[in-house]
Amino acid sequence: MVHCSCALFRKYGNFVDNLRLFTRGGSGGMGYPRLGGEGGKGGDVWVVAHKKMTLKQLKDKYPQKRFVAGEGANSRLSALKGSKGKDCEIPVPVGISVTDENGKIIGELDKEKDRILVAEGGLGGKFLTNFLPLKGQKRIIHLDLKLIADVGLVGFPNAGKSSLLSQISHAKPAVADYAFTTLKPELGKIMYKDFKQISVADLPGLIEGAHMNKGMGHKFLKHIERTKQLLFVVDVFGFQLSAKTQYRTAFETIILLTKELELYKEELQTKPALLAVNKMDLPGAQNKFHVLMNQLQNPKDFLHLFEKHMIPERTVEFQHIIPISAVTGEGTDELKNCIRKSVDEYADQENDAYHRKQLLNLQISNTISYREPLSKNTVTSSKMDII
Ligand SMILES: Nc1nc2c(ncn2[C@@H]2O[C@H](COP(=O)(O)OP(=O)(O)OP(=O)(O)O)[C@@H](O)[C@H]2O)c(=O)[nH]1
Ligand SMILES: [Mg+2]
Fold first, then answer.
1. pLDDT single digits (tens) 265-276
2. Residue 324 Cα: closest atom of ligand 1
3. Which candidate, 184, 191, 234, 337, has a CA 20 to 30 Å from the CA of 118?
4. What is the C-alpha to C-alpha distance for residues 314 and 329, in angstroms, rounded to an integer?
5. Which of 153, 158, 164 has most ligand 1 atoms within 8 Å of its beta carbon, as the pocket-test mutant?
């Protein structure tokens, strides 16, 4: 068993989902003291999102991972104002978040052609600097790829997440009866009759301690951050990683998953969540399902059975709970309908919230424009909010 997963870990090496890069803006050009000429500004370094790009391509194309922009031109007799140095663009895939050395977010690139300035060129030499140019900004940046999907599959290993994805979409993820079959996230799309598509991300299984990075937990949990909704997938018979670890019932796996999400990032729990209870084709599944439903209806009555550190602050309220079999397809149409309903409702809510915000901004700007005297800055900023 162990050697299987080793081979797969090696395969994971081909999938790059983060990179560390050195960037430096170009130096400014020299000024021209005698004639008061100003050197050109150094070029800037930008990170730019391209649909077709991957981090692996970026890494292969620029193995030294250094990005330096061009120098500003010196001020000359024929061109007293030196021209600006050439900008440097780092092409990255869509869905990247850029952070600095301290983990502070510089920006996120969510759609094609989004761009972020990461290192600014130095100013050209001028009177104020004694005509000496300034160096460009130096910065180490981290690129992190997060999947952008409508729905993320969350579950312990072996619950049947990949089987489910291949049942409801055209994606063909690997399926096997050992833990950690899925080692990199994979996207599938559910197609609806009215041509609406909903993207679903199959994620590697989480285990207890994932928030402390057990089982490469962080690598996987971070992908969940960007999915709009969560679909918990649990094996109705529960889960046991190995003979040495404790057996967990389906209810326990749900509580443990909730706790892992909470410990990793509390706001993950605010996402709408659905629950698919899998492997309903197997003998005895109905009984187990009834037990689980009873526990989910009154979770508080059962939580005292858990060790304290395993109890989440809040239990997840599932919008729908659907018994399914990812192998026979039983219940998966119903599941697809529930996913659709939930995604549509969420989009409506987002639209409502957006309109309310717009309305509020409009009201604010009206109130401001009735008031005398007007401060120029206030009006500008409230207008900008509306845009
Ligand atoms: N009987 C039955 N077996 C299932 C069902 N769904 C999945 N399985 C089996 O359970 C095993 C694990 O399935 P996967 O789809 O690989 O599980 P996973 O959740 O993606 O697992 P990891 O990638 O390791 O996290 C495989 O042997 C599947 O054939 C189901 O509905 N019924
Ligand atoms: Mg899998």
1. 877 878 899 999
2. 31
3. 184
4. 32
5. 158
Tens digit of each residue's pLDDT (9 = 90 or more) over 278-327: 999 999 999 999 999 999 998 888 888 888 888 888 888 899 999 999 99
Read off the pTM. 0.68
Tell me which residue has tokens 């009834």: 290
Provide CATH code, domain 149-344.
3.40.50.300
Show the ligand 1 pocket: residues with CB < 6 angstroms.
Answer: 155, 157-163, 175-177, 179-182, 204-205, 278-279, 281-282, 325-327
- Hey, do 19-145 and 149-344 end up sharing a CATH topology, with the first three levels equal? no
- Please list the residues that pair with 197 across neighbouring strands: 191
Q: Which residue has the least CA distance to atom 14 on ligand 1?
A: 160
- Per-domain residue ranges for the chain? 19-145, 149-344, 350-382
Q: Comparing C-alpha atoms, which of 145, 244, 148 is closest to residue 201?
A: 148
Q: From the CA of 346, how far away is ligand 2's center (Å)?
A: 27
Tell me the mean pLDDT in the region 129-150.
Answer: 91
Residue nearest to atom 12 of ligand 1 (CA): 158
| pLDDT, the chain, mean | 84
Read off the pLDDT of residues 354-383 as tens digits, 9 standing for 90 and up: 677 767 766 666 655 444 444 443 333 333
Look at residues 274, 292, 276 and name the one whose alpha carbon lies nearest to residue 284. 292
